[in-house]
Amino acid sequence: DGRRATTHWAYAAELEKLAADEMESAKLRAGQLENFRLSLTAKAGGEGKLFGSIGTADIAEALSKAGIRIERSEVRLPAGPIRLVGEHHVKLHLHTDVIIDLPVDVVAEE
C-alpha cells in the first residue's frame, strides 16, 4: 500500500528531525558547561565528612539555580553520592553522544 509507505517515511523523517534537535540542544547545553565549575556548600564534620551526602537531585538543583537546565536523570555519580569535602567529578549525560565531565567543589559550611 503506497499510503502506508509514505506515512512510514514521514514518521522516520520526523524521528530523525527530533533526534537532530535533541543532539543540537545537548551540544548547546554542553557549550554552557565549558569551563564551568559547580561549587556547593554542605555541613561537614571535623575530617571533612559531610553530614549526609550530595546526590543527583542536589547537583541538578544547583545547576538549575546557576541557569543551566539539567534533569536529575542526566547526572551520573560514578563513585556514588558525594560524602566528603573537596573536588569531585560528576558525569552529565546530555545525550547518548554528549557526555560532560563536570568538576564539583564541595566546601564545608562556615
Describe the protein.
By secondary structure, this protein is α+β, with helices and mostly antiparallel strands. It is built from 2 helices and 6 strands, in the order αββαββββ. A 4-stranded mixed beta sheet has the order 1-6-5-3. Strand 5 and strand 6 form a beta hairpin. The longest helix has 31 residues. The termini are far apart. The model has no long low-confidence stretch (mean pLDDT 90).
Helix and strand arrangement:
Blueprint: H1 2-32, E1 38-42, E2 49-54, H2 56-65, E3 75-76, E4 82-84, E5 86-95, E6 98-108
Parallel strand pairs: 1-6
Antiparallel strand pairs: 2-4, 3-5, 5-6
Summarize the structure.
The protein has about 110 residues and is an alpha+beta fold. Helices cover about 35% and strands about 35% of the residues.
